[in-house]
Amino acid sequence: MRIIDLSSPIDADGWEPDPIRHEIMTPAEGAVHMSEEMKKHFALEFDPAVLPGGELLSLDTLTLTSHTGTHVDAPSHYGSVGAYGTPRNIDEMPLDWFFRPGLLLDVSDVGTGVIGVDRIEAELARTGCRPEPFDIVLLRTGADRYAGTPDYFTRFAGLDGPATDFLLDLGVRVIGTDAWSLDAPFGYMIEKYRETGDPAVLWPAHFAGRRREYCQIERLNRLDTLPGPSGFRVVCFPVKIKRGGAGWTRAVALVDA
């Protein structure tokens, strides 16, 4: 079995609208910290100088949103009320949603804007593949080439409302993208709203989750390394954040050798 990493790193050096703070405590600093914590919380005295090199363990402290890096959006991210009932948080989602056969749709020719039903149907016809219920559909937009730059947040394609419903009608419950969002960029949607006055053009992929329960994987990476449109399984278990609207994931594809 071959394992293909489909995840973006959490990188404090990359450009983010919500900057990441990554503080690293060295093993020597960790020894002092552990000594102080043991004394404070457990009344234990310990001299870190007795450790080899005066070192114990390093410690990373990160401040970031749950939507930084590759992550899974829970239904509760889309709104507080669903037509189907109370939207579930990420820690409440069934794990079997996140270990499923995958289907890759290459829509990298769309550029910046929306991916409609016609484009999805054309790609399914081109590949001769069609998702089965609960298959994980991955959209390759090509946006990952801009990761770590401001362009990553403005130059990509997202699903429109009918295209989202089309995939959900086929029984898909997890849709992934290598873009920052499953919806089109902010600027594109707002421009279309100003042109049409139609609120349906605003965040249609996310708001579809208010009507129908499903999850998104956003900020995937390296979808171009997959062996083809099918023939692989996706593993994307989200981190179990209590009451979380999303959870980070180390998404991978499993390909039988």
Automatic annotation (TrEMBL):
It comes from the Bacteria. Pfam families: Cyclase (PF04199). GO terms for biological process: L-tryptophan catabolic process to kynurenine. InterPro entries: KFase/CYL (IPR007325), KFase_sf (IPR037175). GO terms for molecular function: arylformamidase activity. This is Cyclase. The lineage of its organism: Bacteria, Bacillati, Actinomycetota, Actinomycetes, Kitasatosporales.
